[in-house]
Design goal:
By secondary structure, the protein is an alpha+beta fold. The protein has a single domain, classed as minor pseudopilin epsh fold. It has one helix and nine strands; from the N terminus they run αβββββββββ. The chain has a five-stranded antiparallel sheet. The termini are far apart.
Length: 146
């Protein structure tokens, strides 16, 4: 009986030590997943503009306070003079990540990128961690952690 109690005690201590590490690792993966989804949307939209030969834009929006952000891709195919949605809005993550500011990135047919709403840089946060996504005027993406 004493041996069983000792095994349970050691197991409990080890579990208590491992739990914070597991939670922190899961939070890091969730943030990384949200950032990967946002960068994929940017790269995919730029590629579509280059391949189709007309402007596209990707719109990042969040709910109240930027929570649970999503993105919407839109195109301006000739002879249209305004952008129309391509498909439906897609959530960036299944976890409650936060978008720092609503951002609209517009891609010309020659690959040039401009921000019509927000800036060419925005931040995604989750559980106290954050990453900044910066897009150059030519579509290069840099991800930094403050």
């Amino acid at each position: 009986m004493i041996e069983l109690v000792m095994v349970l005690l050691v197991s409990t201590v080890l579990s208590a030590c491992a739990l914070p590490i597991v939670v922190e690792t899961l939070n890091a993966y969730r943030l990384r997943s949200a950032v990967a989804s946002a960068t994929w949307a940017i790269q995919s939209t730029r590629f579509q503009a280059l391949m189709e030969g007309y402007p596209f834009q990707v719109i990042f929006t969040g709910g109240t306070g930027g929570v649970n952000p999503s993105y919407q891709i839109a195109s301006e195919a000739a002879p249209a003079v305004t952008f129309s949605n391509v498909g439906t809005s897609v959530p960036i993550s299944g976890s409650p990540v936060v978008l720092s500011t609503p951002t609209t990135l517009q891609f010309k047919a020659n690959g040039i990128v401009s921000a019509t709403t927000g800036a060419l840089s925005f931040q995604i946060s989750y559980a106290g961690r954050s990453n900044t996504i910066t897009v150059s005027n030519y579509g290069n993406i840099a991800i930094t952690s403050p």
